[in-house]
Amino acid sequence: VTSTSVVILNYNGEKYLEQFLPAVVANSKSAKIVVADNQSNDGSLALLRRSFPEVEVIELERNYGYSGGYNRTISQLDSEFVVLLNSDVLVTVGWLNPLIGFLKDNPEYASCQPKIKDYNSENFFEYAGASGGFIDFMGYPYCRGRIFDNIEIDQGQYDEAIDVFWATGACLAIRRKVFLEAGGLDPDFFAHMEEIDLCWRTRSMGYKTRAIPKSTVYHVGGGTLSKLSPTKTYLNFRNGLSMLIKNLPVTELAVKVPARILLDWVAAIKFILEGNWRHGVSVFKAHLRSVVILGKNIRKRKYTSSLSGNPHLVWGYYIKGKKTYKDLFSK
Q: Within 10 A of 185 (CB to CB), how many other CB atoms are there?
């Protein structure tokens, strides 16, 4: 049994497979490489059969989305570690060993991530994970290297390996046993924040997560939904609330969910005043949907843990003008 499987979920990603899979094959010699296909109807499968005979292909019987596709695939594998790798990621020489080596040596850690840089502007961190993910007092995610939409240039300022709250879904190394024990990724999220929700659950189970910048990968990003899409806005606001309802202790829920709803309404009004009324409407739609699925989310509550003691991101960013991770933690 290979101790590590690198799993790439594919849906009509023929051009990404052609572009990025050769580097994965060349630079991941110690691992089994698996492409799970979510019922693609482009030339992906033909390309895999023709050009990548060494890659194991798992054909899913329909498109299960990001979470469902990974859950089904990972439950079929027998490796000790799995790396969830987006198809639009360029891995570098030696990317895998620091991640898996760390997990092997540190059983109290469930998961870790490399440093994620922007494939299209390679001096910059990439939005979807930068140099490790965090979550603020109110449940807003941010990264070492990216706060809201402010993305920093990588000048080695975040090259130290540190404990983080969440690891990016673009390149997430995790113990398979813990992934399954935590219940995997939440398929109701469809896209956005599933990995934060998963890392929060593993944290509530007593495990830790680490960012290991010694390993670096480059991510194209925005592959599934563009940043300007109202659907993306809807998913972000709906999933943000779902995540709080599923993971916060009862004492914090009563205060933070109403406060978060108010802040979301401020964001919606800001969208509308800026002329982005479709995004504003998406926020209200997300809230209506959250009411409909409230019972379901409450039933999913199994492990919970607090966010008290985390920084106040909205206050720091918008009121005090702290635009970088370093600023946020400076007095």
A: 23
| 240-254 pLDDT per residue, tens | 999 999 999 999 999
Three state DSSP letters for 36-74: EECCCCCCHHHHHHHHCCCCEEEECCCCCHHHHHHHHHH
State the Cα–Cα distance between residues 105 and 161, nearest whole angstrom.
15
Task: Compute φ and ψ for 236, nearest 5 degrees.
Answer: -60, -45
Instruction: Give CA–CA dist 134/321, Å, rounded.
Output: 19
Strand arrangement of the beta sheet that strand 150-151 belongs to? 133-135, 141-143, 146-147, 150-151
pLDDT, tens digit, for every residue of 120-138?
Answer: 999 999 999 999 999 999 9
Task: Tell me how far apart the alpha carbons of residues 212 and 160 are, in angstroms, rounded to a whole number.
Answer: 7
Nearest to 215 by CA among 173, 278, 177: 173
| C-alpha–C-alpha distance, residues 130 and 144, integer Å | 6
- Interstrand relation of 208-219 and 89-91 (parallel, antiparallel or unpaired): antiparallel
How far is it, in rounded angstroms, from Cα 240 to Cα 196? 10
Q: Is the pTM of this model over 0.90?
A: yes
pLDDT at 2 over 90: no
Residue written as tokens 């440093």?
115
How many whole angstroms separate alpha carbon 323 and alpha carbon 328?
7
Q: Are 73 and 36 in contact (CB under 8 A)?
A: yes
* Cβ proximity of 239 and 141 under 8 Å: no
What per-residue string of b and e applies to 58-92 under the rule 16 or more CB within 10 Å gives b? bebeeebbbbbbbbbbbeebebbbbbbbbbbbbbe
